[in-house]
Amino acid sequence: MPTRKDIRLKNYDYSHNGAYFVTICTKNKMCIFWENNDKYKPFTAENGDGSNGPDAIVKNVSTTNANIQNASIPNVGAHSVRPSMVTDTKIHLSEFGKAVKNSLKNINVHYPMVYVDKYVIMPNHIHAIIRINLNNSAYDGSGGRTLCAPTLSLIIKHFKEYVTKQIGFSVWQKSFNDRILRNEHEYYGAWQYIETNPANWENDELFINENNIKEK
């Protein structure tokens, strides 16, 4: 049996404060999260800190972890920001897509120190900016609560399991891709990529046509 390649960054603590650009794909890239494959305007996260853009959030992103400085960041997650062509209609999610949306909203309920600042549900994958912030005084131990900092892998594992429980079977590809957002520039870049992704669906490297055939 072949050994799966470890795509997490070595010697990096994924439970540290910080922001991550995460991509999770469906099994066999099946397009099951939208009602159709038309181009739609993306919706913003409903369970972040209530802001309408990245400016109010990026100041809270911790990117000064010492173990980033000498690390080699793997080339995973988003690759580039493509030109946008945004329409005035919104994404029409399938029942599977709605289960994913509910599960994304549940992350902060299950882990109060974890925030989904921005996300988009694409036909066969999702992108999200996930931020871990352990500096909230309500959860830093001062309130008499024992704080257990989740790793990014544990967060995604529980997210996938929550979706599977709602749907009744797993729709996920194994593992996920992540990119550490080390500064404001990278954070804004990830935000913009998510914002324009639906309008650029047909140019996406994960695009599958209506016959479930990859055209690239």
**Helical content band:** 10-25%
Query: What's the number of extended β-strand segments?
Result: 4
- What value does the average pLDDT take? 74
- Do you know the CATH architecture? 2-Layer Sandwich
CATH class: Alpha Beta
Biggest β-sheet: strands ordered side by side in the sheet = 2-3-1-4
Uncertain runs are 1-9, 43-50, 62-88
The helix-strand sequence is EHHHEEHEH
Major β-sheet profile: 4 strands, antiparallel
CATH topology: Alpha-Beta Plaits
Helix- and strand-based class?
alpha+beta
- Rg on CA atoms, Å: 17 Å
CATH superfamily, please? Transposase IS200-like
Total domains:
1
> Number of DSSP helices?
5
Overall spatial form: globular
Which band does the percent of strand residues land in? 5-15%
Distance between the termini: 29 Å
Explain this structure:
The chain is an alpha+beta fold and 216 residues long. It has a single domain, classed as 2-Layer Sandwich (Alpha-Beta Plaits), CATH 3.30.70.1290. The protein is 25% helix and 13% strand. The protein has a 4-stranded antiparallel sheet with strand order 2-3-1-4, with helices on both faces. A hairpin with a 3-residue loop joins strand 2 (114-121) and strand 3. Helix 3 crosses helix 4 (152-167). It is globular and about 40 Å long. The two termini are 29 Å apart. Mean pLDDT is 74; it is low at 1-9, 43-50 and 62-88.
